Amino acid sequence: MNWNVYKIFKNGKRAKAPITTFEYDGSETEAIAHFHAEILENFKEKYRDWTYSLLNTENPQERETASQHNDENLRKQTLVLSRAAKKKGITYKYKTVGGLIFAAATGWNWQWCVLEYPTNNFVAALSPPFENPSEAKKWMDRQIQNLK
User: What is the dihedral of CA 124, 125, 126, 132, to 10 degrees?
Assistant: First the structure.
């Protein structure tokens, strides 16, 4: 089986074309280990510090950048928050945005809220309060999974 080796740039994007291709029969983990032990040793020293990604040539080679993933996640978060605001009957005379905040208005807990744009003043809470941001993000992930 053939493996394509792509450079990963500092901004997290993967190169469009592979730097090299090598043949190795085994799992992806074994191929990565083989690459680092055998193939990378033949690279010039300045290239050895780069970050690489390996893809099986039999799999799709399309690039999905982190920003595309983040944009989709942000779109889904916006959908969750707008549906929650609509369900609670929250209306406001100015433009609003949704966000995760930690402020006096939330009792110094993390909470997903409707905020006034562009001041980010608290308008209304959309989620239960959380003690830390990871709990709030898990709540949002569950809400995203429940989207229809």
Answer: 150
